[in-house]
């Protein structure tokens, strides 16, 4: 409710369950980004051959913002871009789908390595790892950067200059998605 930007989710064509996920805020409570879930809550796959039990799509909304000073005066925060949304989406996908059979002693190292790779990929949206995809945002065809991996898919783009959108999912095709402003975020349980 305190977000200074409009929240986005899947449009009305999606009729399944919806829920509010994590919200990122500054130390003084200003909301910078957040995520909404759609479908079945993600579950960790026990191994690569296991059936996908989680058909889900998560939409990450990042408020557009220029370069500005940190609230605590210790430095400068970078501007938010579609790359910001791509990194949050890529990190979210990893956190929701890492291989459960991975030895616990190695899991933290694996997750750190994969998160760094997600950051590097997000920083190069024009690179060959991404393909172009056009999806409707509030009914308007909008360009997105799209990529698939063994864990699911990630996409990122910008909507109407006020927000950047990222999304990730598994078991649902990204090609059939549409996004729209959420009229009342309280409808997401």
TrEMBL record:
<protein>
    <submittedName>
        <fullName>Uncharacterized protein</fullName>
    </submittedName>
</protein>
């Amino acid at each position: 409710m305190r977000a200074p930007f409009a929240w986005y989710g899947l449009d009305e064509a999606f009729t399944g369950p919806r829920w509010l996920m994590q919200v990122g805020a500054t130390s003084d409570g200003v909301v910078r980004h957040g995520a909404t879930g759609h479908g079945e809550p993600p579950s960790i796959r026990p191994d690569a051959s296991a059936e996908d039990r989680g058909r889900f799509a998560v939409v990450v909304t990042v408020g557009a913002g220029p370069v500005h000073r940190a609230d605590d005066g210790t430095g400068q925060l970078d501007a938010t871009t579609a790359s910001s949304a791509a990194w949050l989406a890529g990190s979210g996908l990893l956190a929701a789908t890492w291989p459960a059979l991975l030895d616990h002693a190695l899991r933290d190292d694996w997750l750190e390595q994969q998160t760094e790779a997600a950051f590097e990929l997000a920083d190069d949206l024009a690179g060959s790892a991404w393909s172009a995809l056009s999806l409707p945002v509030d009914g308007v065809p909008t360009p997105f950067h799209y990529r698939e991996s063994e864990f699911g898919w990630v996409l990122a783009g910008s909507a109407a200059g006020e927000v950047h959108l990222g999304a990730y999912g598994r078991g649902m095709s990204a090609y059939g998605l549409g996004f729209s402003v959420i009229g009342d975020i309280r409808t997401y349980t």
